[in-house]
Design goal:
Blueprint (H helix, E strand, L loop, with lengths): L2 H8 L1 H11 L5 H11 L3 H12 L8 H14 L4
Helix pairs in contact: 2-5, 3-4, 4-5
Length: 79
């Protein structure tokens, strides 16, 4: 199994939750952007979700931004 395939499997639950719970169904490029941003923290990853989906982060409601951040936090892979 390649590292890329393993990476996708590692974050499947996270991206499934974003899609099912919040409607942020990211394409592969967007998922990679979010994974890359995770090393900079949850706030950076949250912003990356909005950018990947083409949603204006600054004009999104605080409730939506918080929901995305909470979803990321709740579904981060262990380890």
């Amino acid at each position: 199994m390649s590292d890329e395939a393993h990476l996708d499997d590692t974050y499947d639950n996270l991206f499934s939750a974003l899609c099912v719970e919040l409607g942020f169904c990211l394409h592969e490029k967007g998922q990679k952007r979010v994974i890359g941003a995770l090393s900079d923290g949850l706030d950076a990853a949250t912003k990356a979700v909005f950018v990947a989906e083409g949603v204006d982060f600054l004009n999104a409601s605080g409730d939506l931004r918080r929901a995305v951040r909470d979803c990321l936090k709740a579904n981060l892979p262990a380890g």
